[in-house]
Amino acid sequence: MTQARAKARMERAGERGESRFAEGFALFAECLLTGVWIAVAALPLVTYPAAFAAGARHLGRRLAHERGGLREFAADFRAAARRGWLVGALGWVALAVVWVDVRAVRDGLPGGAFVGAVGVLALIGAAVAGLRAAAAWHPGASWRSLLAGAARRTVLDPAGSFLLVGGLALVVCSAWFSAPLAVAVLGAVAAAAVAVEERHRRR
To answer: How far is Cα 108 from Cα 13, in angstroms, rounded to an integer?
Structure first.
């Protein structure tokens, strides 16, 4: 099945006269553009899960050589944001709780170091599960069931989860050096989430 899909993609690329390098470069450029779309869609702050979901759907269509552009991205974003904004709000609440834990560590409260470490690890795990849920989203899907399934995959597929942790770390480091660079990296993180979920489905 996987070999058949790869062969079909190569045949389609050959029909268009594209080399493997040209196709890879086009995908890289699409990731950068998608990162900009995700960043703009996430500006209301609580819509970042929907933005990633729409970005992942767009990149999935690109990998399948299906047509789709900004209009399809916007339609997916609106559909994902209907319930996805609640997930985004809960994410900010979790971040606030972890921030309180970190402050407790800095203030030297008893047991603060342990609680702080657990809180940071839990936040990282939640972020990875959120990315995996966004990559698996499709119109009509329940965010609750998506997150439950993504949480299981985060634990049962540590290799894929660590890959996404690396992507998140890259976004943070990029933002530290240059905010515009972090915007472009968002698309690469969405692509990584799509690849991780596809890898897990094929196992």
So the answer is: 60
